[in-house]
Write a structure and sequence with these properties.
five-stranded antiparallel β-sheet; Rossmann fold; Arc Repressor Mutant, subunit A; five-stranded mixed β-sheet; Serine Threonine Protein Phosphatase 5, Tetratricopeptide repeat
């Protein structure tokens, strides 16, 4: 079931992202669709230009002319124009207002687009290659037999929609040399030259690292080193080596000095042992090389360093010096997060170079990182058809990886798996573990989305081997994050928590803020699933401490929603409400799942505060957004909440009408425990006690089989209270007893225990359970009758 908006002869289908005119599709670009949808969703008011720009582009540096073009295309798509303004009214000096008569439909025939919200997972590679911002980014909702608390299903899509890894373009053909050795860390190169050569500071560093890695050494990515030293590569310590020793634990640290000479360029490479001073042993190789061009000096000096380390330098084919320098300049700009500079370098390259497939691919890669995935697909497909690409297996593989990422972002998972499998085949025998890990990680995401969990885990395990070989510490941390999220998503929280804790510690050492926020919030959600509220709050506090450093507005909104959910689970309603209000105050256009997350927390908060009308509205809004089968259990719990809110409203007005029945979710093989509880409660309203008890027992059995604490508590509480209300205390004991394991730390379980002991007339255990419930209550209320001591 999906939501659509109808106006005139048009229907805008949210789930399938289609505009239909008389049931015929109207072609729309992604931005035109987003603009149309945002205006319709906010039709109750005028939308300012800046707000609309932020919603459609995700940034504010967009000209009025660009916005005007998008609005013009929207008007044309819906048969409107700037004169009549039947649908979109221009608000002078402010923005636009959707004025067409519009109604909301729920259409069972509109296909849901995303069977799973897994997106591209760049296990290796760099944050410089993120195609979608990482909020990039998190708390998700629960799926069948999977944890319910806030962060799981979406996180595969949120964690890192990464594109193509930052990799070197040396024409390496040597077989991999794999030996067990400590990591070699390459620091930014000290360049004694003018401002025109400033790119060499990072460009030469990355070239040295790539060449060492191609020779079989374990070398952390330049991204990881810059994460440790800071974006500009300058450590806070007087000695950068001290910083990288603490964070990366290298066996060898290489730093260089590149300077102009009368004959060209000279690179001096110096190396020092890693570890603490008392642990350092052995020689510290020093080498030097002169050449007419800086990158040739880099190549020669690195080869000499490899020789001193007992390694064979990688073989090099014919390389165009201008092409090599252009690519390395672009790489340096991307490492410095200067996308516009990278684009300008490529666009200003001579026409002959710009026509070369390598530079065309780099231009596509820059566009992909900037978030223009829809504009990149055609260029990548055209590159695959270029005859010169077929002669370069490495370039061919990298193009395929990029195309796989584009397909994942577009939710074309089968196509993504196909091209990524081709990429993995093309990389066989080539000494590029980072590329292989990237292809494997992205294929794991596609396979997870296709429901092939075991195959996805196998890909992640293989990717781990490749990353460890390359010495990519950032990649290993991301892999722990991804695998931990995936295990949590599968309901294996005990396996997920250690992985997430390890990843969190690694990201802290690397000072990777976005990843720390995502992973720590996911860890908090896993701990909530374990009914470990103390641990969940501690994890949430750590993520919250990073708020001031979160630049991405979508990630910030996600962080707010996640923390609101944790606080609400602890009964801290006022604080949760404040965070939700902060989200509403931000002009942010987020994905439906992210907006749905905030609405989910709002619905629960409204229900807890007995604002039943708002709870119904919020639940309906969330149900309309989360239409995919992956959200089956979340939808089931929302339907139960909505039914209870509706019933409470009807009782308040003394209505005899029955709440509308909640239909079972289509496409779900086993019945959800929450839906079975809902069915039991409906049966009770009809006076069908036998039917209700059958459904209660089925709900509890299903929850027990799934091993889901949340479902067990939900089913036991509803069933147990009904038994107590019927005076069947003996029957209630084993039902309520299902929650005893959590009564020391879960308010609901403690309260239920107090109710049971009160009904049994047992003063001491009632008093203890009541005291525990009061301790855990937060702003939640305890029934007055329960505070009266039980009779003798």
């Amino acid at each position: 079931m999906s939501m659509s908006y109808r106006f005139g002869e048009f229907r805008l289908c949210v789930g399938s992202r289609e505009l239909l005119h008389c049931d015929r599709p109207v072609p729309l670009s992604s931005r035109v669709f987003d603009c149309l949808l945002y205006l319709i969703e906010h039709r109750d008011r005028a939308v300012g230009r800046d707000e609309l720009v932020a919603a459609v582009w995700g940034r504010v540096d967009v000209s009025d002319a660009q916005l005007g073009q998008i609005v013009l295309r929207v008007r044309r798509a819906v048969d409107d124009d700037g004169n009549e303004q039947r649908a979109i009214r221009t608000m002078p000096k402010f923005g636009y207002h959707w004025v067409a008569d519009t109604r909301i439909d729920t259409d069972e025939h509109v296909p849901a687009q995303r069977p799973v919200t897994a997106a591209s997972l760049a296990v290796g590679g760099t944050d410089a290659d993120v195609a979608i911002s990482p909020a990039k980014n998190m708390p998700a909702l629960r799926a069948h037999r999977r944890p319910r608390h806030f962060v799981f299903v979406l996180l595969l899509g949120v964690v890192a929609a990464a594109a193509i890894a930052a990799v070197l373009w040396s024409d390496v053909r040597a077989p991999r040399v794999v030996q067990d050795t400590s990591a070699v860390v390459v620091l930014p190169v000290n360049v004694s030259a003018g401002s025109d050569e400033a790119w060499l500071r990072l460009g030469a560093m990355d070239a040295i690292a790539g060449r060492l890695r191609a020779a079989g050494l374990r070398v952390p990515t330049s991204e990881a080193v810059l994460a440790v030293l800071g974006a500009d590569g300058v450590a806070t310590d007087t000695d950068p080596a001290t910083t990288v020793r603490r964070a990366l634990d290298p066996g060898l640290i290489v730093h260089g000095k590149l300077e102009r000479t009368p004959r060209g360029w000279r690179l001096h490479l110096d190396s020092v042992a890693g570890g603490h001073a008392e642990e350092r042993t052995g020689e510290s190789p020093q080498v030097e090389a002169d050449a007419a061009e800086p990158l040739i000096a880099v190549r020669l000096a690195t080869n000499r360093l490899l020789a001193q380390l007992g390694r064979t330098p990688p073989l090099i084919g014919e390389t165009d010096p201008q092409l090599e320098e252009t690519v390395q300049r672009v790489e340096a700009a991307m490492l410095g997060n200067q996308l516009e500079v990278a684009r300008a370098i490529l666009q200003n390259a001579p026409a002959l170079e710009r026509a070369q497939p390598e530079l065309r691919f780099w231009l596509a890669r820059v566009a992909l990182r900037a978030g223009h995935a829809d504009e990149v697909k055609n260029e990548l497909e055209a590159l695959l058809g270029d005859e010169s690409v077929s002669g370069s297996p490495l370039l061919h593989a990298r193009i395929l990886i990029g195309l796989g990422v584009v397909n994942i972002n577009a939710t074309h998972y089968a196509d993504a798996e196909r091209v990524l499998s081709e990429a993995i085949t093309a990389l066989n025998g080539l000494p590029y573990p980072l590329d292989r890990s990237q292809a494997l990680g992205n294929r794991a995401a596609a396979r997870a989305a296709l429901g092939r969990g075991e195959d996805a885990l196998a890909d992640l395990a293989t990717a781990r081997v490749e990353i460890e070989q390359a010495g990519d510490v950032m990649g290993l941390a991301r892999l722990d994050m991804i695998e931990g999220t995936f295990e949590a998503k599968r309901g294996r929280v005990d396996r997920a928590v250690p992985l997430l804790q390890h990843a969190t510690a690694a990201f802290a050492r690397l000072d990777a803020v976005d990843e720390r926020v995502l992973t720590t919030a996911t860890l908090a959600a896993s701990q909530l699933q374990q009914i470990d509220y103390t641990g969940a709050l501690a994890s949430s506090d750590r993520a919250w401490a990073l708020k001031v450093r979160v630049a991405d507005p979508e990630l910030l909104s996600l962080l707010l929603s996640s923390r609101a959910g944790v606080l609400l689970a602890l009964g801290r309603r006022t604080e949760a409400d404040a965070l939700l209000r902060e989200i509403e105050s931000r002009p942010l256009r987020a994905k439906d799942e992210f907006v749905g997350l905030a609405d989910l927390v709002r619905a629960r908060l409204a229900f807890d505060r007995a604002n039943m009308g708002e709870a119904v509205v919020r639940a309906d809004a969330t149900l309309q957004r989360l239409v995919d089968p992956e959200y089956a259990t979340t939808r089931a719990h929302l339907q139960l909440l909505r039914q209870r809110a509706q019933a409470a409203m009807e009782r308040e007005v003394a209505s005899a009408s029955e709440p509308a029945p909640t239909a079972p979710l289509s496409g779900v093989g086993d019945e959800q425990p929450a839906l079975l509880v809902a069915a039991a409660e409906r049966a009770l309203q009809r006076g069908e006690d036998e039917t209700a008890e059958r459904d209660f027992r089925a709900a509890l059995a299903r929850a027990d089989a799934d091993g889901d604490a949340e479902d067990v508590i939900e089913a036991a509480a509803s069933y147990g209270r009904w038994l107590l209300s019927r005076g069947r205390t003996d029957d209630a004991v084993p039902v309520v007893g299902r929650t005893a394991a959590w009564a020391e730390r879960d308010f609901r379980s403690a309260l239920l225990a107090a109710e049971l002991f009160h009904a049994l007339g047992r003063f001491a255990p009632w008093s203890s359970a009541l005291a525990k419930a009061e301790q855990l209550a937060g702003e939640r209320t305890i029934p007055v009758a329960l505070r009266t001591p039980p009779g003798p």
